[in-house]
Amino acid sequence: MWNVARRSRGAGRPGLDAAGPGSAATGARAGSALEHAVPVLGLLGAQLGQVVQTTEDAAVEFLDEVKAVDAAAGNVATEADRLAMLTAEQSDELAEISAISRGSGEVIEQLVAFVLRRDQAVIDLVDEVRGLSDHLGSIQKISRATTTLALNAKIEASRAGEHGAGFQVVADEVRELSRQSDVAARDIGERIEQLALRLAEAMADHVGSDDGSGGSGRSEDVLTRRLEAVAQQQRALVERLDTFTGRVDGATRQLVVNAGTVHGLTTSMMAGLQFQDVTRQVVEHVVGTLDELGRQLRDVAAVLAGRGDVDGLGELEAAMDRIRDGYVMHRQRLTHEQATGGRVTADTGPAVELF
Amino acid sequence: MTTVMLVDDSRTVLMSMSAILSKSGFDVVTASDGSDALAKLDAARPNIIISDLNMPTMDGLEFVREARKRPAVRFTPILMLTTESAQAKRAEAKAAGATGWLVKPVGPDELIAVIRQVVPGA
Question: What ipTM score was computed for the predicted complex, to two decimals?
Answer without folding.
Answer: 0.88
